[in-house]
Amino acid sequence: MSKKHIVLHTAPHVKKPQDVPTIMRNVVYALLPIVAFAVYQFGISVLALVIVTTLACLGTERFFNWMGNKPSSLSDWSSTISGILLALTLPPGFPLWMAAVAGIAGIAIGKAVFGGIGYNVFNPALVGRAFVQAAFPVAITTWTPAFFTGRFSEFVPSSLTAPFMMPPETAEWVKQVAVDGFTGATPLSLHKFQHISTAPFDLYTGMVAGSAGETSALLILVCGLYLVIRKMMNWQIPAWIFVGVVATSGVLYLINPEKFADPVFMLFSGGLMLGAMFMASDMVGSPLTPKGVMIYGLLIGFLTVLIRQFGSLSEGIMYAILLGNAMTPLIDTWTQPRLFGARRKSA
Amino acid sequence: MSLIKQDDRITVDTFLEGIWRENPVFVMMLGMCPVLAVTNSAINALAMGLATAFVLVASSLLVSLFRNLIPSEVRIATYIVIISTFVTIVDYTMQALSQEVYNALGAFIQLIVVNCIILGRAEACASRNKPLKSMVNAAGMGLGFTLALLCLGVVREILGSGSLFGLPLFSEQFQPWVVMVLPPGGFLVLGGWLLFFEWLKTRKQYA
Amino acid sequence: MSGRNSTAMIATLGFVTALSGFLIVTVFQATKPAIEENKRLAIQKTVLEVIKGATADKHFIINEKGELLEAVPGMKGINVYAGYDAQGKLVGVAAEGSAQGYSGSVDTIYAYTPACECITGIKVIKQTETPGLGDKVITDKHFVANFDKLEAKVNAAGDALANAIVAVKHGAKQNPWEIDAISGATISSKAIAKGLNNSAQDVLPKVVPLLPQIEGAQP
User: Fold this and answer.
1) What are the recorded GO MF terms, alphabetically (chain C) (predicted)?
2) If you count Cβ atoms within 10 Å of the first and of the last residue's Cβ in chain C, which end, N or C, has fewer?
């Protein structure tokens, strides 16, 4: 009779492999519907945008691997995510060469110089966007209409700008193709500079101007929930950001409803949903402790509203998340849990 | 006299030291303020570099000439007086030569006084060496500083304004990278150059 | 090493300082004429550029009593630059305007043409606006076209402008004294308008009665 082997093992009893590439691959799956909707909405320009930024990110990652004599790190999917996310935060008609610059800058100064995945302080996609925001302030605030006819067969004229050249004026072209009443302004800038509100329903479903992948709050929410259900994302981060946004804008709205936007509008407009769901929740740049996550989320929400209402830009989520990223090491230090039984240090 | 036995020989290295092995910007990381602030165009970088190089050479000569007369208790004060004299001279000369460049460089000409490269050279080299050797060394340092500033200025001007020394390089449709002429551009380009030089050095070591 | 006593220290410092003073004074004397010439040329260049058709210029100062004086260095008052054409006829008068922009003061020199009672040119001499946005006030052709003929009539009482110069939202210009702002650079556009208005309200009523005198003082 053969001996039976009883396997003894201490906790944790891991049921399924949850390594970095698996999680990252699932994030990519979660992003695909958003990409698909963006392509449906804005046409092949956005498809090209996604391809260009992703290739730029992957290429830069590989270049730095080569520079540092390290094996390729492309298979961990993290640069693919950065590329896709970056494309989703850019205007649909953003010149492709500038998008490539954004991808290169994002991976180079946002990730590679810190030592690659796991060491980056900031979200690489947002670093890339911040770079082009500072370098090309005009192109990144030029919006083109959604659902124009012929969007699957022709590019937005500014997309195919020759490298290093200025994008052509799109105003004439917009007049030709535009759906009635398109002003070339996002709901946020409409509210900020002209005090025009956008219908909430349009915001949920994405029937407004904006960056390629930020327009439909509802879809982003659903895709984010997929990751939450698969336990691949800390749901508390977006939740606390939403609390921060609602609380801050709620107070401002109560003080002066004429001047400040209502919390619902704040929550569903601009890149807040995309940023909160997919960028602020990036595992590397966010705190580890539950209390830290709360501080981090509230801070980002508060800063977003502050920049939107009082800053010179109409959207603030990008800088809010970057500042949150910068605060993370400090937050983690503050909120280290006390060892069981250890005494609190007397001040 | 000094107890340390002096090596009075002037070698090629006395001059080249400041350009490569001990480059004040890329190796010693000194004088970062003008490096970041006035390199938004090649012409500004060149003017700043030459102005600093002049002050460096002239003050090295004077400090070296008086090196045995200056009591060590008041040496720093004396160096500063000498340096500021030449800075004032540069200030007037630059105004007389070109009002435009002078306006662009602004307060940074006066601030050459506190550039630590110059005080550093006076303390480390000129006060211990004969005039000719100090001057050769200072000229190398000055040239190294100018070249470093130019490295930054050229990149920032090409990307930030699409021109070089004020001459447009591209057609009118060129899209300037606004960030490059702003302060962050200075940091980014400096970082890029440092990365490049470090990478070159590491490659040499492993090769 | 040389002496530790204070006499040596004082002597060294004194000697070095004296040498330093001597060098500086020499250089100052040598460069002074060139520097003043440079400054004058810079102003002249701007004035001749901004007053179209002018080939010669003259610098006047209007003092507190409203008298017109030929400028001498160090004199206080309002700077006025007159531009004359080749025949020695007065074509325009330039004055300085300044107002707070988006990130610091925006300084301008503008030309007033008596013939049409309007501002016919403007040049920004100092600004720190955002590159690519605010500095469009210099490069934007549509915006610069505002100053081809911007009305600046002095009112009947002769103490202010008949209509204040104002910047209006892009595309909303209706009156000849309004400035069509640049969309996206409204604050910088407004700064130009405010600088022009503040200066013109004050300077033009003083200059207009003096015009015959300026005309007569041709170089």
Assistant:
1) electron transfer activity; FMN binding
2) C
